[in-house]
Amino acid sequence: MGFSVFWPGVTALAVDSITIHLQIESTNSTLYDGEITVTPCAIDDDHSASISGYCAIEQSGLTTAWSQFGADKFLDSIEGIGNDFVNNLYWGWFDDLEYGATSLNAHTLTEGEHLLVNIGLDPIRVSTSNRNPNIDDVVTITVEHFGFDAFFNGIWIAAPTAILNIDGQSVVLNGNGRHEYRIESTDPIQISASLAGYIDGKLTLNSDGRQQILAGSAPIFLHYKVNIPQAIQYLLSQQRVDGSFGHDLYTDWVNIALASAGINKDLQTRKTYISQSTDNLTSATDYERRAMALMALGVNPYNGTHINYIEKIVGFYDGAQIGDVNLVNDDIFALFPLIGAGYTAGDEIVSNVTNFILKNQKENGSWTGGVDITAAAVQALSNVRTLPSVNNAISRARDYLASAQQYDGGFGSSFATSWTLQAIVALGEDQDKWQIGVGNPEDSLAGLQDIKDGGMERADKPETTRIWSTSYVVPAVLHKPWMSIIGNFAKQDLPVLTIESETSVDQNSRDDIEVVDTASSTLDQEGVTVLETIVGRPTVDTLSPNQPLADTVTESLTSDDKKPVEPQIEASAVEIEASVTALPVGADKLPRFTMPVAAHPVRTYGLLAGILLVIALL
User: Which of 228, 224, 193 is nearest to 129 (CA)?
Assistant: First the structure.
């Protein structure tokens, strides 16, 4: 009697049997390793027949024992080798090296699959970067072993100490468990890897693009994952006693990263620090970044601290844009806290800032600064799609990002790749669709993670760079754009100071403002472009060829002359005739020459002094 297999919308097909490769491994011996033809079976008289992993083991001829819980059967022993509850050794299984998360009878077999059943030993996975290599192509061979993270999730871990054998020759793996191999002939290439305490991995690679899967080997094409628990542990290890992670720049981004992963360790200490440490906040982007960090930790940006951050951000609004008219990053990043604080596309400040962002888009779809800031713009604009021309701008930006993707799946650096991965999620797309070469964006990021401490970038890089990079990568690989992290808060009205003046002040003339260019690009020691448009990134002067980026950043953090100089408008008290009225209106309704009371206290107090002088003279 045939066995029926059903797919939605497809006529039922009768399947009498399926042939697979069955491999059963214990700590000390191989119990079965070969092809087996499996026919339908049932776990008992109350359940229908299927061609399952349970059937394969039962039809192998080995002696087995099972425990049944409802409709599921779990292995107790094979050939007398049972689960060891003292040493936490249990029977498990893999389907083409995908870890089995169900009972074996719930796993339906497919033709030609490799079913590995194991206890005491976990498998090694061998994979190649190029599924279609030609003569002279360089193929990356990666060796990993299976294991569990701190949360008992099955993961693949780089195995740099494994012995890799290529056509009978032993070769050395690098620190990430990889080896570069040049294809020199059309003959099949035999690849194997072994490591004490693990099941060997093997595959045969043909230069015509075919890979023959052998026992313990990998699927034809694999993707790599960043070890998130290890990355988070690295970030937590960098926390200081006061709750900071070094400079406020890094502290804010680390808090956003930890919030994206739901990490509450030392939460109150971290909240207290970023609530009270405000001395380094000067620019619009400083306040925007800090507001995002506070909101990510659940702190209300209006009244959760002694500073009303939304009022501060709105204080940089001149009626058309926010902050420096020569920059667009302060406008892009203003949208995140504003929208999170209850502002919508219908608010004047949001629509005007969005229009300013659109006007600054280049013909190729990017914004000044390249991939980084373009990816950030895509995230921001995705929240205001109802405004005119936004969808077209997003489409053009997407095309630009796609054109900038490199063969390894990344975008030139961990910074740019992280923000682009968040942009891909904001677009509602799957990163697996973003693969032009050997990998997708996360593949590229996984290759940059240090396997020893979990931080991003090599261990010999400056610690500040590694903290910064890791804080960007965590939310990216968790597929969480910034808006999904910072939450939503009810909009509140802002008190404003309305100034009516007969003195003509040209707001477009900014000769008295020192403009600090944060949109330039520099090169680090390895020639990797690092874009200085990242929010809150300290100003970096032009580097000499051998000057490391991190050193320059460190210098800029301690140099007062690197800070943007706030515009100063000077006017004699007798030249001003003003009436002052406190109005509890929405901050987005502010006219061009109106500023919130708390936005610039020095100017406000100076103005009030002038008014009092005028009154005294009268």
Answer: 224
